[in-house]
Amino acid sequence: MWANLRARPLRSTLSVLAICIQVVLVLMIVGLTSGVVSEWGKRVEGVGADIMVQPPNSSIFVVFSSAVMQESIADQIAAVPGVDEVAPTLVLMDPKHFALVYGIDYGRFNALSKGFLFLSGGPFQGAEEALADDIVAQTQHLKVGDKITLLNHEFTIAGIVAHGKGARYFIPLRTAQDIAGAEKRASMFYVRSKGDTEGTRARIVKLLPTHRVRTMAEYLTLMNSSNLPELKPFVRSMVGVGVVISFLVVLLTMHTMVMERTREIGILKALGLSRADVLRLVLGEALLMAAMGSVAGIAIAYATKAILTQTAPTLTVLISPRWVLHSVWLALLGAAAGALFPALRAAGSDPVEALAYE
């Protein structure tokens, strides 16, 4: 089989490359979707809250939340037995930097956990000051005192904080409300309980029966790509495209190979090679190409992940062992399916006709 592949090195190399592209496509598409969802869940967890209160029918992605809740609801939640701290938050998306911006009451938001870990600078003091996390600061080459345009408004970077507090940028709540035209409104409330999280959640649900109230543990279980119906068709379509690429390339390669080696196959069958042997020979060559392409694809996918980690730290790629196995299985399946017709044709050829083939 190896000698047969070496006989046509360019064709074999292109076939291996096509299978490699399929594997890379599957791993990177799934890795990007899984990575973004997983990384977003960890950032929300890092806020330090036990409970999230959102408007009715809100998305699990708070970026899609609207500022429809009165800020005064925070005082009602704070009065619930078992509640330790409530932080109203206005969630905005900056289209220029494609980054999430939280409008926060600094004191209340900071009290949810051990507080912001400042790597440089300090809390914002004025309405036109902002905080940036270290990842986006590294990407944008920001430092304390720099000017940056967020939401079409100019802000001064007051501090650089460690990442993992939900958003990439933080601005004063009042400023965010003025920008969004949402006076005294919030997108959500982060709540920290005094210990009895489930009991506190039940009491908040009783207070706000129409709102979506989730514990952080429940929220984190939802943060995976399998719970996002909008992503499933996209991922399946990309996987399907990869399998079709593998199928068509292998079909063309093996069909051409069988046509070119008709006389050779006739000689082998005349010497006693069985139909099963011919079938195994052709399928074996296709699976060998698929195996080589899979190894190359996995290596390229991990190399791409390493490069993105350095060049685009805000972009998370999560390549799981389960999807590595899936990608290899899909490559083998596509190659086997593509080689099946040429293999059956070769196995069923008549030795006499094959020997007379010009």
Largest sheet: 10 strands, mixed
- String of helices and strands: HHEEHEEHEEHEEEHEEHEHHHHHH
Mean pLDDT: 83
**Which strand-content bin applies to the residues?**
15-25%
Question: What is the terminal-to-terminal distance?
Answer: 23 Å
Estimate percent helicity.
40-55%
CA radius of gyration:
29 Å
- Counted by DSSP, the helix tally is 13
Going by helix content, strand content and strand pairing, the class is alpha+beta
Low-pLDDT ranges? none
Strand tally: 12
Number of domains as seen in the coordinates: 2
Globular, elongated, flat, extended or rod-shaped: what is the shape? elongated
Give a quick rundown of the structure.
With 358 residues, this protein is an alpha+beta fold. The protein folds into two domains: 2-38 and 229-355, no CATH class; 56-210, no CATH class.
Overview of the molecule:
This protein has 358 residues and is an alpha+beta fold. The protein folds into 2 domains: 2-38 and 229-355, no CATH class; 56-210, no CATH class. It contains 13 helices and 12 strands. It has helices at 2-7, 9-45, 73-78, 106-110, 134-140, 173-180, 197-207, 216-222, 231-260, 262-270, 275-311, 321-347, 351-355, and strands at residues 51-54, 69-70, 83-94, 99-104, 118-121, 129-133, 147-150, 153-161, 169-172, 185-186, 188-193, 212-215. Strands 1, 3, 4, 5, 6, 7, 8, 9, 11 and 12 form a 10-stranded mixed beta sheet that branches. Strands 2-10 form a two-stranded antiparallel sheet. Helix 2 (9-45) packs antiparallel against helix 9.
